[in-house]
């Protein structure tokens, strides 16, 4: 009886505590040496800030090329050998198709914070983009599409293969961190489907990251906190069967100003619902035995 009660107590603990498993963190940016996330920026991310990733999980995958990655690590440092990351770019600006056979056009978004007169820099004390241009914050640097901003700029995208079935949240940061205008939104498209060499996103509805900028005179610390749909997105998706992949594409939110897609970081966080249901089922079994 006492053993069953102890097990039941453990089950209750499982139900009352968050379940963290198989979190994956991707930081895009190269070739600068400060593109590798390091202290004190290891937990400066929307996934950590919103409770999806515990503070003890700080392993970031530095993605510095368009080459396929099969050497990924989970946020707790364990191997994610079942996963493959593939990156690609739009076949031509405005085509609405990511070709995973094409390399991303620009791998070295420096993240200078912007220098528009009378506009607040993205960088500064307590900023989610880091204190200065030497910071290693995951949201500071990144990748972006080829072509010219308002003429031939291209979207970029990623495909993640090998995820287990279940519900997930993708925390995405997508911003041109080299500039600080009043607004420079990014459209982010996502889907789940069979692994494929292309991702057609033209018919999908985008989630929009607003990327609002602020005049220096009116700045009130907006860059020091993670605000959903403003400086990051939380994208819910479900893998329903083995062999499905998660697809993501990013393009500029204003064709007259910026067509290129920018991507700084992505965190893939499993929803705890399956583990929670298992714990609840275990408690039900204990209750019957007691």
Short description:
The protein contains three helices and 15 strands. By secondary structure, the protein is of the alpha+beta class.
Describe this entry's structure for a reader:
The protein is of the alpha+beta class and 290 residues long. It has two domains: 1-19 and 273-290, no CATH class; 22-271, no CATH class. Helix content is 12%, strand content 27%. The chain contains three helices and 15 strands. The protein has a seven-stranded antiparallel β-sheet with strand order 10-4-3-7-13-9-11, with no helix packed on it. A five-stranded mixed β-sheet has the order 2-1-15-8-12, with no helix packed on it. Helix 1 (2-16) packs antiparallel against helix 3 (273-289). Mean pLDDT is 89; it is low at 1-19 and 274-290. Keywords: Signal. This is PEP-CTERM sorting domain-containing protein. Residues 1-21 form the signal peptide. It comes from Luteolibacter luteus.
Write the SSE topology.
Layout: H1 2-16, E1 24-28, H2 46-49, E2 61-63, E3 84-90, E4 97-99, E5 106-109, E6 142-144, E7 156-161, E8 166-173, E9 186-194, E10 198-200, E11 207-209, E12 233-239, E13 244-252, E14 262-263, E15 265-270, H3 273-289
Parallel strand pairs: 1-2
Antiparallel strand pairs: 1-15, 3-4, 3-7, 4-10, 5-6, 6-14, 7-13, 8-12, 8-15, 9-11, 9-13
Helix pairs in contact: 1-3
Shape by Cα distribution: globular
The helix-and-strand class reads: alpha+beta
What fraction of the residues are assigned to beta strands by DSSP?
Answer: 25-35%
Order of helices and strands: HEHEEEEEEEEEEEEEEH
How is the biggest beta sheet arranged?
7 strands, antiparallel
The low-confidence runs, each spanning 5 or more residues with pLDDT under 50, are 1-19, 274-290
Number of helices: 3
Number of domains: 2
What is the arithmetic mean of pLDDT?
89
Number of beta-strand segments: 15
| Strands in their spatial order, largest beta sheet | 10-4-3-7-13-9-11
């Amino acid at each position: 009886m006492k053993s069953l009660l102890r097990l039941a107590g453990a089950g209750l603990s499982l139900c009352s505590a968050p379940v963290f498993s198989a979190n994956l963190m991707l930081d895009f940016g190269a070739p600068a040496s400060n593109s590798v996330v390091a202290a004190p920026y290891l937990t400066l991310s929307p996934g950590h800030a919103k409770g999806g990733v515990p503070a003890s999980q700080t392993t970031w995958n530095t993605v510095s090329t368009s080459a396929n990655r099969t050497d990924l690590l989970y946020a707790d440092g364990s191997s994610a050998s079942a996963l493959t990351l593939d990156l690609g770019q739009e076949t031509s600006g405005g085509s609405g198709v990511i070709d995973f056979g094409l390399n991303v056009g620009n791998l070295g978004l420096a993240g200078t914070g912007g220098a528009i007169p009378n506009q607040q820099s993205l960088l500064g004390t307590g900023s989610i983009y880091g204190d200065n241009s030497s910071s290693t914050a995951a949201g500071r640097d990144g990748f972006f599409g080829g072509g010219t901003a308002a003429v031939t700029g291209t979207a970029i995208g990623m495909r993640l293969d090998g995820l287990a079935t279940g519900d997930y949240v993708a925390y995405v940061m997508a911003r041109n961190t080299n500039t600080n205008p009043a607004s420079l939104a990014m459209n982010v498209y996502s889907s789940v489907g069979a692994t494929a060499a292309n991702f057609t996103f033209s018919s999908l509805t985008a989630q929009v990251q607003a990327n609002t900028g602020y005049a220096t005179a009116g700045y009130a610390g907006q860059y020091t906190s993670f605000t959903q749909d403003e400086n990051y997105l939380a994208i819910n998706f479900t893998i329903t069967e083995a062999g499905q992949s998660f697809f993501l594409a990013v393009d500029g939110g204003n064709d007259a100003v910026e067509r290129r897609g920018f991507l700084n970081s992505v965190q893939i966080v499993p929803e705890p619902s399956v583990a929670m249901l298992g714990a609840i089922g275990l408690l039900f079994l204990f209750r019957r035995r007691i």
